[in-house]
């Protein structure tokens, strides 16, 4: 059933409190030379919603992703994921705690096969524990589990036919799918996608959109950076806008696109972005309505291979 309760806990605006935040960040700053790449006083990401992080080039979106996921270190600030402090926690551990991210330029390993890439994404590898290494039945069992989970995901992302191909042979869009599928190997709670649609051909765009919507349908939270405003309007429940390192606006997509601070932020750097036009958006809606590929609501096994009854137990 769709959750129609308000996302914000108080007045909607930059830095507003959420009814049920999964991630809370305070006073996070990062400077490069004299530039304030990120200067975020307070931001909260709502649980089990799709939040778009938008803003003109150089606004600090990717830097904020890097800081929150342990790929970069801020000058100041603290942030909690599911109530646990993450400042100083390595990227590897952040992912194992259930917060994963993908990159603007995909980081799949070209010289490994698709299935090998998937296996690398698993939360614990058989070789990681010394005593397990001395007990072959234990690590063989875990290896089988990892491979089975990877195969389920590859089938869902329609990459199963590419299983033994080198990742380098995939198209840009397929690499994005592989990176997303690999991120799901840790059965995350929060999935952060940096420009998931960039460089993806129109045939795969619909499939990617569906996968993002499926993540939410299966109980996950999504935070994504995107420049395509029609995509944002189509799938986001909430939009956070950054400019010059700060959060300058946030709210539901239809409201945010009308916000003067957002229009001003974009007019400086992004003349080509059409924030108000709904024609393209309506066309996209119509196309997706007839999208036979849509897999929202598929069977008891979700995209992440976690059974729906299992997720209900955790709720
Ligand atoms: N490694 C770095 N060294 C120096 N400056 C950097 C570095 N990374 C980011 N910056 C600067 O920090 C600011 C924020 O950059 P960032 O890439 O986070 O913006 P963005 O909103 O993700 O932009 P885009 O939409 O173009 O990806 C920019 O002024 C950028 O030049």
How would a textbook summarize the main sheet? 6 strands, mixed
CATH superfamily of the largest domain: P-loop containing nucleotide triphosphate hydrolases
Q: Show unreliable segments.
A: 287-315
Based on the coordinates given, report the CATH architecture of the largest domain. 3-Layer(aba) Sandwich
Structural class computed from helices and strand pairing:
alpha/beta
What is the helix fraction of residues, given as a range?
A: 25-40%
First CA to last CA: what distance?
A: 14 Å
Q: What do you see in this structure?
A:
Residues 23-269 form the ABC transporter domain. GO terms for molecular function: ATP binding; ATP hydrolysis activity. This is ABC transporter ATP-binding protein. Residues 289-315 are annotated as: Disordered. Pfam families: ABC_tran, BCA_ABC_TP_C. The protein is an alpha/beta fold and 315 residues long. It folds into two domains: 21-108 and 185-314, P-loop containing nucleotide triphosphate hydrolases (Rossmann fold), CATH 3.40.50.300; 109-169, no CATH class. Helices cover 36% and strands 20% of the residues. The chain has twelve helices and ten strands. It has helices at 61-68, 91-96, 114-120, 130-133, 136-156, 172-183, 202-217, 229-235, 253-256, 260-269, 279-289, 308-314; strands spanning 21-32, 35-46, 50-54, 76-81, 84-85, 99-101, 190-194, 221-225, 238-243, 246-251. The strands form two sheets. The chain has a six-stranded mixed beta sheet with strand order 6-7-8-3-9-10, with helices on both faces. It has a four-stranded antiparallel beta sheet with strand order 2-1-4-5, covered by helices on one side. Helix 7 links the parallel strand 7 (190-194) and strand 8 (221-225). Helix 3 runs parallel beside helix 6 (172-183) and helix 8 crosses helix 11 (279-289). It starts with 20 loop residues before the first strand and ends with a helix. The relative contact order is 0.16. The protein binds adenosine-5'-triphosphate. Adenosine-5'-triphosphate binds next to strand 2 and helix 1.
């Amino acid at each position: 059933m769709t959750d129609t309760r308000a996302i914000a806990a108080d007045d909607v605006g930059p830095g507003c409190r959420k009814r049920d935040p999964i991630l809370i960040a305070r006073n996070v700053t990062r400077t490069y030379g004299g530039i304030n790449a990120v200067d975020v006083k307070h931001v909260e990401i709502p649980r089990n919603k799709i939040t778009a992080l938008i803003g003109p080039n150089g606004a600090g979106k990717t830097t904020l992703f890097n800081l929150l996921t342990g790929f970069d270190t801020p000058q100041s600030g603290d942030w909690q994921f599911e109530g646990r402090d993450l400042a100083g926690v390595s990227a590897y551990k952040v992912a194992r705690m259930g917060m994963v991210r993908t990159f603007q330029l995909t980081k799949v390993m070209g010289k490994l096969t698709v299935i090998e890439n998937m296996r690398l994404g698993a939360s614990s590898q058989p070789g990681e524990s010394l005593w397990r290494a001395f007990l072959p039945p234990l690590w063989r069992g875990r290896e089988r589990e990892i491979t089975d989970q990877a195969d389920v995901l590859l089938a869902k992302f329609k990459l199963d036919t590419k299983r033994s191909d080198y990742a380098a042979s995939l198209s840009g869009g397929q690499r994005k799918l592989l990176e997303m599928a690999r991120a799901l190997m840790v059965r995350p709670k929060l999935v952060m996608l940096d420009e998931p649609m960039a460089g993806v051909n129109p045939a795969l765009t619909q499939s990617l959109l569906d996968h993002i919507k499926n993540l939410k349908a299966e109980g996950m939270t999504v935070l994504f950076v995107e420049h395509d405003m029609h995509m944002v309007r189509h799938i986001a429940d909430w939009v956070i806008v950054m400019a010059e390192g700060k959060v300058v606006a946030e709210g539901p997509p239809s409201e945010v696109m009308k916000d003067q601070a957002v229009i001003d932020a974009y007019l400086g750097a992004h003349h080509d972005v059409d924030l108000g036009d709904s024609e393209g958006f309506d066309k996209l809606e119509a196309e997706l309505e007839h999208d036979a590929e849509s897999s929202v609501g598929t069977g008891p096994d979700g995209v992440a291979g976690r059974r729906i009854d299992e997720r209900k137990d955790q709720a």
